[in-house]
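Hi C.,

You asked whether I'd gotten around to modeling the 419-residue construct. I have! Everything is below, sequence then structure, no commentary in between.
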Amino acid sequence: MAWGVLLLLIGLIALGMPIGFALMIAAASAMALSGIDLIMAPIQMFSGVNRVILLAIPLFIMMGELMGATSISDRIIGLARALVGWLRGGLSHVNVVTSMFMAEMSGSAVADAAVMSKVFVPSMEKQGYPRSFAAAVTATSATLGIIIPPSIPMVLYGVTTNTSIKDLFIAGIVPGLLLGGAFMVTSYIFALRENHPVDEGFEPGRLGHSFRRALIPLLIPVVVVGGLIGGLVTPTEAAAVGVVAALVFGWALQRDLGLKRVYELASTTVRQTSVVMMIIAGSAVLGQFLANEQIPQQIAAGLGEITDDFILRMLLINLFLLALGMFLHASAAIIVVVPMLLPLSREMGIDPIHFGVIVCLNLGIGQQTPPVASVLLTVCSTTGLRIEEVMPYCKWFILAMFVTLMIVSFTPATAVWFK
């Protein structure tokens, strides 16, 4: 019956039902067939979201919205242009480096993609880049938002597995830099093949000026993540500090924000948070049912029986997560599936922190891969392009992501270097 419930869940999602509702219907159906009183469903849903640590999610979302609505993005882009704009294919490198900086502020790949696609795709097109190439760079580099801290999927992973969110954030730094470097190498190869232009020549004076303009915006996420890493604040407190700092910068110092604009950003935050919380609530009920049916143990045993070889097991886990990321929202995938794979990963001797980074990288690739491809679809909807127009370029950036995934998977030191 448990496998039938999972098939029902996949079918509802395939029909276009919101994932949170699909999870709830599948869980309620399972409870009814098992003879469990449905009054337990709302109790389990409330229990699933009644955790203080989850307050970090709306706060990190709000911090990203506030910083995205100010002149911060212009300052960050200016610094990125001064740093790497002199390379062949300058604007594509600027795109990637800006995404690396912006990843420190939002924790959401979709949010980064929505902002960056409006800025970079038209600018790159004006300089002679193919529009589809610009969209591919923007979509894939936005994935850095869930790898470089702060990361909302890492918060969910930490809550689901009782793993230190601080350690997860630290673990995401090196893989995020590796991924950004892989994107820049891929962009450079295309720049040589298609003769993409240099953006601007390197000028130390301009770099210094750009750095001074971007210093305060860059310090906000550094203080937030640094306070968390240093043990001075909890993840929720760190996110709250970030919101206050972004408000002070945008409202008091730069006058970029008014009361009406802050209200609009708060409304957007509430909508985005409600989607995540509905997924968490539905996953809590379904996850409890699957745990009662011992599905995690069955999956771990099944994968374990296929082979005893560590490399093959790791490849199977990655393939399973990659396939999952193609169909499920990252939040739902983490909450429902990670508890199933965690016993096997522990049996293999994989550090939970390392495994968390592997999960996020896999789901990041899924955000670029049809049929769901949430980040790629965001960029396509903003630019008016079709997925089939972007994929000829996007597939090579996805390959770069896969190579990075393999490096991180088989080199634990990239994630747990600080231990």
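If it helps when you're writing up: Residues 286 and 375 are 26 Å apart (CA to CA).

Thanks,
B.
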